[in-house]
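Design request, tokens follow.
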């Protein structure tokens, strides 16, 4: 038993940290048109491969080769989790467990899609817009802390939350990730995060989107100010309609650049015809 423990190969905390930071630095810096993030994934695996196969050059070559298979996922929030699980499998394989190349690549391929969907939804679709919207509001109020707030929270999200996920994924291995998916905890968290994001962005949109009409309707000797009429119906009705119109354009698959042009054109025409 003592001899087996002495011969057991294990990754050090330094190896894991190197892999994490290599992934963060290389995931999107070494894109391949044929294999996308595979070169970055290989870079993240190098510290582990050197530790697990120090005297076996052929094993190192084979490990590098198997990780050059096509790979693509969300790189910042959930992508490190796939790296962590793969490191765990490589460590088990180096210690004699019957894990084949197909097993490792199968886990990577099976996780990269769901992890991309989760990461993009939580980070790009929810958390980053919330952080950015709050920072914009602070900036419009003249608060110098706005860019610092945005940078600190974004970096904490990219390299803080993701690092914790990376370490947990390594410790739990593929069984732990399966447990998380089967327990339903992930779905509950995503639902909660989406609700919070929608509420926050809705509130910020109501305070940051500004639009009023200057139109006046003449009724005999009386003037009817359209803006006052709209305010009696619903305060900020025009900004709300602009937001709904923008969402409708997005659902029509129109790009953000084209939507911006449309909104500018509407503003210019509105001013020319005395609407705004």
């Amino acid at each position: 038993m003592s001899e087996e423990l002495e011969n057991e190969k294990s990754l050090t905390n330094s190896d894991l940290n190197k892999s994490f930071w290599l992934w963060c630095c290389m995931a999107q810096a070494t894109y391949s048109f044929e294999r996308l993030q595979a070169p970055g994934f290989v870079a993240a695996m190098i510290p582990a491969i050197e530790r697990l196969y120090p005297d076996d050059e052929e094993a190192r070559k084979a490990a590098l080769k198997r990780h050059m298979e096509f790979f693509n996922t969300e790189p910042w929030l959930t992508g490190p989790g796939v790296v962590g699980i793969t490191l765990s499998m490589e460590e088990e394989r180096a210690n004699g467990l019957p894990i084949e190349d197909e097993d490792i690549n199968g886990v990577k391929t099976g996780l990269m899609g769901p992890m991309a969907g989760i990461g993009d939804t939580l980070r790009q679709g929810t958390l980053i817009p919330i952080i950015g919207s709050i920072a914009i509001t602070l900036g419009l109020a003249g608060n110098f802390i706005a860019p610092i707030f945005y940078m600190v929270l974004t970096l904490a999200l990219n390299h803080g939350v993701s690092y914790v996920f990376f370490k947990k994924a390594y410790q739990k291995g593929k069984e732990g990730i399966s447990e998380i998916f089967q327990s339903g905890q992930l779905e509950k968290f995503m639902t909660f995060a989406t609700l919070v994001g929608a509420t926050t962005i809705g509130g910020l949109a109501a305070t940051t989107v500004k639009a009023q009409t200057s139109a006046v309707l003449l009724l005999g000797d009386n003037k009817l100010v359209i803006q006052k009429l709209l305010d009696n119906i619903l305060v900020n009705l025009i900004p709300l309609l602009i937001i709904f119109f923008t969402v409708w354009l997005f659902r029509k698959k129109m790009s953000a650049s084209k939507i911006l042009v449309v909104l500018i054109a509407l503003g210019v025409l509105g001013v020319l015809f005395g609407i705004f």
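Comment from the thread starter after seeing the answer: thanks! The chain has two domains: 9-196, 213-272.
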